[in-house]
Amino acid sequence: MKKIILGIFLVSQLVLASLQTPIEAKITAINKINDTIEFEAKDLKIGEVGWIYINTTDYGAILYQAQVIRIKDSLITAKIKAYDALKQIYLPNPTNKPKIGDKVIFRKLNSRAFLIAPNLELYEQIKNTHKEVKFMSSDLLIGYLYAYGNYDPTPNFLKNACDVYAVGLLYIVAENELAILECQSLKILDTSPLDTSDVKESISPFYSRIEPVKTGTLFSALASKKSEYYFSYYTSLIHPNRSYQEMLQKEKPIIDAIRAQKKLAQKQQTQQKEHDQQAQKKEEKD
Hints:
Layout: H1 2-18, E1 23-31, E2 36-40, E3 49-55, E4 60-72, E5 75-82, E6 103-106, E7 112-116, H2 120-129, E8 134-135, H3 138-148, H4 155-164, E9 169-174, E10 177-182, E11 188-193, H5 218-222, H6 230-238, H7 244-285
Parallel strand pairs: 7-8, 7-9
Antiparallel strand pairs: 1-2, 1-6, 2-5, 3-4, 3-6, 4-5, 9-10, 10-11
């Protein structure tokens, strides 16, 4: 049994390590009607996103992204779209199109990742286990989220944050699993079991050292805060087939009860502190 477990662990580590190995290939076919390209490559996964490096007589440039949508043996079909992360509004838009022979590059940024976890314990546990990648501070992600004007990290926000910080992968702790996602497509590339049953209270919207910003504005009051119920939000985010509302029915009563107890304890602590201060003042007066 120990040999089987060790074997599974080693295979898992090899899979994770392969996600950090850059893959390059040359375009062999282009379908202009469907905006797809084809090329030969091994070990890519459905949902992975790469760059198309376009060569001209004067320069080379990354102007398009390619997302893997079909794999047949080593023949890869990818959907292409314009790469807007480097777009300059005051410069003319390039008119170059991908052509046969142009290079497609995958996993170039996969040595850097963001980690979304419900608490410090799991955050540190995963960081210490997954040495194959450099985790960017969750403080960067939460700071960008508040600057973005949101409370819940939406798919569009996560893609933008990955572009801004040049991050390739997103590690998310969901209910009883750790999922590794491609940053741009948010497709799951790999998962591993992770016991989250002991997590009774989570930090929302996710663990960081930065406290939530409370502006007191109407916008802040009305902003979506689904991620206050951590596992319902993130599990449904990465598994669209799992209903947020159905998971919420199970998680909400437990979390609300814990938060109510905590709030009551804080109130009692404050009252006790005020009582002690009043008693001390009376004693000094006497």
